[in-house]
Amino acid sequence: MMLANLLLAAALASPVVPAPDVTAQAKTLMRAGEASQPQARALFAQAAGQGSGPAAYYLGLMLKNGMGGPQDSAAALRWLELAAQRQVAPAMFIVANLLQDSDEEKARYWLDAACDLGYPEALQQKSVALSEGQMGYAHNEEQGNLYLKMATHAMGHRPPEP
Predict the structure, then answer these.
(1) What pTM was estimated for this model as a whole?
(2) 79 phi and psi, to 5 degrees?
(3) I need a labelling partner for 4 at 20 to 30 A (CA). Which of 40, 81, 119, 138 fits?
(4) Left, alpha or beta for 138 (phi > 0: left; psi -120 to 50: alpha)?
(5) CA 61 to each of CA 82, 89, 95, 144: distance values in angstroms, whole numbers, following the listed order
(6) CA nearest 107: which of 86, 77, 79, 132?
(7) In which residue ranges of the chain is pLDDT below 70?
């Protein structure tokens, strides 16, 4: 956990430097099965520490789900928030859901940010939240229907994963 905190501190202090080759290699290893997941996790940590938003996203997912090592929800949230700050829409969506019960205002902030990037799942969730008056959004059926239409459109025009 201390290593994860040090890597996160370094990532926050460093400029955004893409590490596409390392991240692509780590994604392949992550998907290859349990035996290769510790190596994938280490590569994501390396790339995330060098400023890669997508690597921070995948590292956060691995920590959240206990892939390639022990589960660490607190570290997962920190890495996912870093990825969200680096404009990774799926990370914004996950952070919004992780914070929904503990910090509704921050959860709305990240859900709105993911919606601004046209992330389909975020648009769909905001549609429901508006239609039902959840997450601190005022009940608004008309706006809820608009977000549902935007979500349907976005599903058909999904950008590639990070």
Answers:
(1) 0.84
(2) -70, -40
(3) 119
(4) beta
(5) 12, 14, 11, 29
(6) 77
(7) 1-20
